[in-house]
């Protein structure tokens, strides 16, 4: 279920207000320490199923958050804890997800359930606040270098950082996640969506042949050792209705997660109308962040 623009504004404002109240106005944000300061017990656990990434539980008036011991990436651990914090803090979530006293979350950034999507929105803004990440993206680094810098400074996973990059960047960028040659999902910047002929890549479609991503998608050793490679490509190989647009194609193995991350950055100049709802627009945005006054997006 899609989250409305107003609902996203409410959740992002909640995350920002929680950060301000906790004095977390710089990177990185530590969600474990934040939860513990709210008297929430946080610990790792051995999941009963491989794809279970975390849990939120309630016992009387006490709450606990767990993250899977199978998660070795600090970035994934942080996102898992921040996601569960979202369930704890967003209005209506405790009643909805803790009806049986314990809620299990499963790995995978794009969920269909509304509560899971809302918790992801909270975790994204909490760990990678727009006000603090947009200056990184506006800096000298571009594409995958900017994504790696976000991951480094936010102590977030490369995948979460890549998705956040597409939400903020002015570049024509798309992120594709795949496993064993099959697409999990695609996200893209506003600029990329404006390229004529772009069609959305959907879950369970095959990674197109004659792409660097296809070459690496079934190489499990390459993926599990978190290797990376870059190339150039005509976007027609990915999107048959696109004509005359070339792009960089960066591919990165995501280690034990077993997925391939692809970043496409197109050589295309999109229309760039003034967007009054863009929270990063205006020179006073950082001041509004520090003072706790925000304009929603």
From TrEMBL:
Residues 268-279 have a biased composition (Acidic residues). Residues 268-297 are annotated as: Disordered. InterPro entries: IrrE_HExxH, Rad_response_metalloprotease. Residues 36-159 form the IrrE N-terminal-like domain. Coiled coil: none annotated. This is ImmA/IrrE family metallo-endopeptidase.
